[in-house]
Task: structure prediction
Amino acid sequence: MEVILMRKLLGANDQLAKKNREYFNKRNILAVNLMGSPGSGKSTLISAVAKKLPGIRIGVIEGDISSSIDAERMEREGLPSTQINTGGECHLDAQVIRQGAEKLNLENAIVFIENVGNLICPAEFDLGESVRLLAASVPEGDDKPFKYVPMFSYIDAVALTKCDLADAVGFDKRHFLKGLRAVSKAPVFEVSLKQGAAEHGADAVADWLKEKYEAFQES
Amino acid sequence: MHELPVVLDILRVMNEEAEKRGFRKITRINLVIGELSSIVDECVQMYFDVAAKGSICSGAKLTFEHRPAILRCQKCGREFPHNRSFSCPVCGGDSVLVKGTGREFYIRSFEGH
Result:
């Protein structure tokens, strides 16, 4: 006997994500799901953007398959942080985020959730965040929006990182934007944060987040 | 790459449904998967075969119905299946993804007794 069901898969995660969203709302936390490839500059972006947001409390939930290198780095920079080790899982899910958020125990804050470095799986898991930010680095190539459609269609903004390398690696911004614009209206912020060189673009990302945070408080 | 959580979700839903209907055996589960949902059929079946052992789903066959992502040309308005260049095959114009297409990800039906 065939039974018609029409039941969405991974629905359990969506239910937990909904609860996380209520938790973040109640505590007045703007949760930012920061995604990107390994080495795209996610941690560096958090550090630089946090410095441009004086007067706003910042927290970080760090996701990695193992190690606490990133959380230790955040603590060194004075940012309260908590580490989630996924034990090999390629993404964070709503359940581990709740645990991380409770450990972090903040209110009235912007909390960055640094997802596992991966352009595929994190796009399938709602964490209950308010904002989805992608760190896409120039050396990864201008064809990435064409190849990772779910990720590029899932996001609210792109930090195009390591822009100082564009000429060196032959990055065609027009091609990148053609792919991105097919799937998303997300604004693109050009960023370069090389140590010891002139820093560029972190303030634009910070302004955008500040705007989101203020709109979030009023809602 | 996240086939295991998908498989565990299928098993959870099937256990629930079987109990509700008094089924003792699930023989087939029919899935609808958009081409942009990043999972591989063979991997899902492989994880499923292992994870379902000893459950009411043991030995059940999974079927996969694939749905394409659709692009719409911004110049001529034509809709076409997602291609690698995102360019209209007729006029060469740039395109936009038709929202929701290619992202289907659900259990359409199941068979059992």
